[in-house]
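We treat protein structure as text, and this decision shapes the records that our systems exchange. The tokens are whole numbers drawn from a learned vocabulary of local backbone shapes. One such record is reproduced below, unchanged from the form in which we store it:
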Amino acid sequence: MGTPIIIRGYYTCATTFAIYRIKCPCGLMYVRQTSRTVRERIREHKSAIRTKKVEQTVASHFVEKGHGVQQLKYQAPTMRRGGDRTKGLLKKEAMWIIKLETLTPQGLNREYNLQAIFRVYCF
């Protein structure tokens, strides 16, 4: 939970093709990737919290623990340009999930299919 992350470059909430990390007040983290704007994806997480859509991982945790939308903190370093950005996102997402230990119970990522990642890169 105390892993320093160096972010190189300039990124905004309008950034696309990004890995984003959400951190809740109790210190748990959630990592995902999006090809849409970070702003749009975070807005969806906040809306799910407000409307108590507990089938969504982040919303479920925030509602269950009584965290407010204003307590949702996020970071979103982007991917390098060039190459297959979809494959790059999957690879970086897996790397950050493993590096930051965000799978339950240490984090909020409920599951992650590493076999799908290996299939993309090995075949």
Summary: The first helix runs from residue 38 to 50.
